[in-house]
Fold this protein.
Amino acid sequence: VQLQASGGGLVQAGGSRRLSCAVSGRIGTNYIMAWFRQPPGKEREFVAGFRWDSNYTHYADSVKGQFTMSRDNAKNTVYLQIDSLEPEDTAVYYCAGGQQLCVQFHHQFYTDWGQGTLVTVSS
């Protein structure tokens, strides 16, 4: 499976951004898709994720109500909508995938990674 993330850029505080992750290749059962982010000088952290065959999305507590993960099956694309952006949301955002029974919150469980897209929020 190949993942390609896009949509990053410079955004003013309070603005919104939609990130995309194009998915290509064969997705088997139990395939998990997730978004992670890595702020400057910090660890990579889980943001949101779902199992490809499920309608339930897990969110990190810190982003609930602000981030929305969705998909377009026809386009094989996963999205991350980020609203009410704050400077603390500045990070490289990664889409990730892997074969797991359930959504994992640590990046070590994911084998497929997009190249990352930088979101910079100015105050």
